[in-house]
Write a structure and sequence with these properties.
By secondary structure, the chain is α+β, with helices and mostly antiparallel strands. Helix content is about 50%, strand content about 10%. It contains three helices and three strands. It has helices at about 25-35, 60-80, 90-105; strands spanning about 5-10, 45-50, 55. It has a three-stranded antiparallel beta sheet with strand order 1-2-3, with no helix packed on it. Helix 1 packs across helix 2, helix 1 packs across helix 3 (about 90-105) and helix 2 (about 60-80) packs antiparallel against helix 3. The longest helix has 23 residues, at about 60-80. The protein is globular, with a radius of gyration of 14 Å.
Length: about 110
Amino acid sequence: MYHPQALLHVHGDGVSIGLDGNITAWALASAWRGMPLYPFHGPVVVTGRTQDGETSALDDDLAAHVHAVAQTVRETREAWQARPPASNEAAMRELLAYVARDVAANR
């Protein structure tokens, strides 16, 4: 569970069939958990979660998280074209700092 009120529906075979990494889903889930997680591959759908774990509509605050993180990932990757990070680790730390800010600002 990445967030108690949300579900991430991920492709179970994304790695084995060669789907691209999903940095946006990774960043969102990592920000919700407060720590870097394993990578996601392929498309990811984010929905709300009921008390009993069923799928529901995503509330407005969590939808704002998703949109803010997606925009930040897009803008950060664009900025890296002109100013590449020193390493992959530095890039991930930078991105996680930005998305943690986004999630905290949209609570």
